[in-house]
Design goal:
Elements: H1 9-12, E1 21-33, E2 37-43, E3 51-56, H2 62-65, E4 73-82, E5 90-101, H3 117-122, H4 131-153, E6 157-158, E7 164-165, E8 177-178, E9 205-207, H5 212-222, E10 224-232, E11 245-254, H6 258-279, H7 281-290, H8 295-304, E12 308-311, H9 312-324, H10 341-352, E13 356-362, E14 378-386, E15 390-397, H11 402-411, H12 420-427, E16 433-439, H13 440-448
Parallel strand pairs: 3-5, 6-10, 12-13
Antiparallel strand pairs: 1-2, 1-4, 2-3, 4-5, 7-9, 8-9, 10-11, 11-16, 13-14, 14-15, 15-16
Helix pairs in contact: 4-6, 4-7, 4-13, 6-8
The protein binds 4-amino-1,4-dioxobutan-2-aminium adenosine-5'-monophosphate (4AD) and magnesium ion (MG).
Amino acid sequence: METIKRTRIVDLLKGDAYGTTVNVKGWVRTRRGSKQVSFIALNDGSTINNVQIVVNGDNFDEEYMKPITTGASLSVNGILVKSQGKGQSVEIQATEIQIYGTADPATYPLQKKGHSMEFLREIAHLRPRTNTFGAIFRIRHNMAYAIHKFFHEKGFFYFHTPLITASDCEGAGQMFQVTTMNLYNLKKDEKGSIIYDDDFFGKQASLTVSGQLEGELAATALGQIYTFGPTFRAENSNTPRHLAEFWMIEPEMAFYDIADNMDLAEEFIKYCVQWALDNCKDDLQFLNDMFDKGLITRLQDVIKESFVRLPYTEGIKILEEAVANGHKFEFPVYWGVDLAAEHERFLVEDHFKRPVILTDYPKEIKAFYMKQNEDGKTVRAMDVLFPKIGEIIGGSEREADYDKLLNRINELKIPMKDMWWYLDTRRFGTVPHSGFGLGFERLLLFVTGMTNIRDVIPFPRTPKNADF
Ligand code: 4AD
Ligand code: MG
């Protein structure tokens, strides 16, 4: 086969160099036609769009062509011509075809269109080859890129916080332990407690639930930083919005109060959504047409509207009123309750019909590090609530006062020996500061319109599932 420089299909479809000989490589999506002429839809992952390969039966041996079925991988040389069919601008008249690998139709699982999302989760190693997951993972890349671009252009520094840690940032005790100890033969003291002295780190260590605490160290040095990395939570919640391993973006800013924090969060999300609209058009259009006819409009609306900013106490009043007027929630509503997704979505989708930033939550349901309000009951927390998702961002202004922070740590009986380094930010040159965490997969749920978080991460980790 003649060696011709490969053109990616995304570039090929933009061009119009009719008459030139080109090379494309990819996987067969479909093949149809007759002995005389057959049509191969080839996809190389660079775009949702396939290029059509026209194969003239006179030039190719029928036996050779036989294994070119859905899933087979090919290298094709051919002449670029203006397309006869509708839906595409160019096609390739094949002159040479090399088969890299076949995919036996009897065993290749991706035969027909319209496999269920549940089935595709069971073959997560192959699902990126479908149109849907190709679109999702291209959007996922684009969102990651947009996030780095946004912060870089604003003068934030990407700061790498550790994945292995000895402290529980959110204080929820939902951590995966990291150990090299022999679990069949644990050393214990006379009270039966495990002795960690000989463990790899010489103490109990876990996978991080958040990079925030170390992020605060960085923000009180570099001014404004962000983290973007994997986060682990051993919460046993089998919901469409929870993963045991997810990615989180956590900006942290010195000299920001909660209003600055809200401004940044709103600008940030809008930037990401705008980026998707501008740079992922074909993929979004596909998802819009296939799954959710309201997707693109919803994305456009979020950019247009300013987010509602509302204290938790006011939010509870609205929810209580709804209950009084006959609205049924599965979970009860009262001041002090940790809102469920149904409550959050009621505020966003039914009441305000746009995103809501809820602030000043009861301190009992929020983490120890949040700035305490004058009232002694609430803290300067902010959750950004989104249509279809509920909480997409959680953040706060931080308690900058050493004594207040220490009191709260003691009240909650957080082991002090693990926190000395964090307290140093308040002992030495403490400053008002704020930050938040955006769940990357929650953002992707919103942007792609998918309804299950397992479908926006390549290999989901959830209770009882760590396959692939
Ligand atoms: O609200 P969270 O727990 O806040 C923090 O971790 C803070 N340390 C952030 C900060 O202020 N720097 O989590 C932040 C976001 C949530 O709003 C949600 O979008 C996402 O992380 N999230 C999850 N996403 C997927 N699966 C889970 N189990 C998640 N838990 C939280
Ligand atoms: Mg939260």
